[in-house]
């Protein structure tokens, strides 16, 4: 039997945007099972709760699967509160997938990958560079545009837009 190669794509996903979905779609080429791991990340003081962020990711993944855009990869969404590399080991992951937007992301990601490698030498970190249409998108920009009354519809799905409107009104 063929060994199932598991990958983890971690993030805060506050909220999930088209750049994240681009990385998820492209990561399915590399693994048989992809776990989209939603971090609790209280330090970043997320706009959406962990439950809301997890649900938003689930809805996007359902749409991806319905569009048959997952290359036969099984995608699971799971919230996690532990150290990423421990969670990855627990999930039997061979790779941690990270998206790189710009040079500014690189130093932090490089340090994190080196630290994770020391903690769990068998888990590799793989970087996928953002496609040019997505390289400037960040959850922070999406929230800022939305808060200031701009149109974020080219960066997120209709479902995420509705969620942003609900949060704006709470």
Account of the 3D structure:
- The chain has one domain (6-168): Rossmann fold, CATH 3.40.50.
- Helices cover 42% and strands 19% of the residues.
- The chain contains 6 helices and 5 strands.
- It has a 5-stranded parallel sheet, sandwiched between helices.
- Helix 1 links the parallel strand 1 and strand 2 (33-39).
Summarize the structure.
The protein is of the alpha/beta class and 170 residues long. It is built from six helices and five strands; from the N terminus they run E-H-E-H-E-H-E-H-E-H-H.
Which SSEs are present, and which pair or pack?
Elements: E1 6-11, H1 18-27, E2 33-39, H2 50-66, E3 74-80, H3 84-90, E4 95-100, H4 103-119, E5 124-129, H5 139-147, H6 158-168
Parallel strand pairs: 1-2, 1-4, 2-3, 4-5
Q: Note the beta-strand portion.
A: 15-25%
Which spans of ≥5 residues are poorly predicted at pLDDT below 50? none
CATH architecture designation: 3-Layer(aba) Sandwich
General form: globular
CATH topology (level 3) name: Rossmann fold
Count of DSSP H/I helices = 6
Series of H and E elements: EHEHEHEHEHH
């Amino acid at each position: 039997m063929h060994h199932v190669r598991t990958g983890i794509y971690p993030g805060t996903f506050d909220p999930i945007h088209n750049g994240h979905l681009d990385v998820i779609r492209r990561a399915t080429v590399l693994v048989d099972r992809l776990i989209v791991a939603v971090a609790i990340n209280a330090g970043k003081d997320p706009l959406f709760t962990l439950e809301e962020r997890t649900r938003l990711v689930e809805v996007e993944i359902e749409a991806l699967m319905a569009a048959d855009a997952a290359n036969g990869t099984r995608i699971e969404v799971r919230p996690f509160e532990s150290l990423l590399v421990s969670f990855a080991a627990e999930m039997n992951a061979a790779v941690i997938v990270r998206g790189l937007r710009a040079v500014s992301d690189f130093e932090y990601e490089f340090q994190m990958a080196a630290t994770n490698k020391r903690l769990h030498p068998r888990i590799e970190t793989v970087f996928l560079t953002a496609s040019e249409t997505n390289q400037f998108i960040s959850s922070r920009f999406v929230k800022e545009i939305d808060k200031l009354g701009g149109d974020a519809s080219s960066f997120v799905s209709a479902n995420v837009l509705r969620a942003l409107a609900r949060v704006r009104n709470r």
